[in-house]
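We modelled each protein-ligand pair independently. The example shown here corresponds to the fe (ii) ion entry; the chain sequence is given first, followed by the ligand as SMILES.
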Amino acid sequence: MATTAPTGSPPSQPSLTHPPPPRKLTTVKALSESSGLSFIPSIYTFPKQPYHEPVSDTKEPIPTIDFSLLASSHPDERSETIREFGKACRDWGFFMVTNHGVPERMMKAIIEACREFFGLPEEEKRGISIFNESVDEILCWRDYVKIFQHPEFHSPNKPPSFREIALEYSKRVRLVAREIIRGISESLGLEKDYIDETLNLENGLQLIAANLYPPCPRPELAMGLPPHSDHGILTLLIQNQIGGLQVQHKGKWVNIDPIPNSFLANIGDHIEILSNGKYKSVLHRAVVNNRDVRISIAVPHGPALDAIVSPASKLVEDVGNL
Ligand SMILES: O=C(O)CCC(=O)C(=O)O
Ligand SMILES: [Fe+2]
């Protein structure tokens, strides 16, 4: 990891005094690819706290749930899977989902389509891609794009294959998400379709949120995506097998290395509300590295725009009976 000051800087000069990025560099990708970059502009330098806290060395693995067991003809297998959802949501707020039925080729295709999108000339992405996100005037080391998939489907026109791949991918992922949400509903002791119906998931919101984290010459100073919880009900995330996601667990950051071809699922703020706080929407963040381009594709699922989210009355009564 490079920690030396850039050539020509006086030894006492703190990295915060580096000049701002040249105006014509508008994406982090372009900045990262600009030749001889050995420092990062001060606008990308995050304050040391709280973003550089130690990472947990926990050997406790993030829960993994076999999605196919939800459809098992053995009632015991389904109910055991529901119990696992409950435990994963209570203990972590995050879990891995295997055997979900979305073909590997589709997962690869959407990652490649997003990679191609981010590789388009700057002019072609302008107006679609959001290049830099600012947190208190500090920019994240990330380019990203958010595209509505449901209830209205949108797609950039380039690359040409994007529309078809996104449409197919988001439909398949939505089916998986709704089934997991049914499992979560049951795990809370609610009717299987309680969340689906109450939050009108037939008209629910679904986005593709694609993130590109280019290599960063000073990864210890930058942040790909600062700590946040997700809005909505459930996010299903895939990535190009380059690590970077960290999840807050028992007060520490835990590195997450997803199983290939699995989804990383996390519950969002609306489940925290609906569950009356039984399940928490957990903080997570993305750190960057100095070697590899990382791509992650999050597909958040939320209530219909006109749905009203409130604690399920059964769960309020449960608390009242304690
Ligand atoms: O890049 C990642 O792994 C995290 C992405 C994320 O948390 C988000 O898009 O909300
Ligand atoms: Fe997130």
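The domain at 17-320 is CATH 2.60.120.330 (Jelly Rolls).
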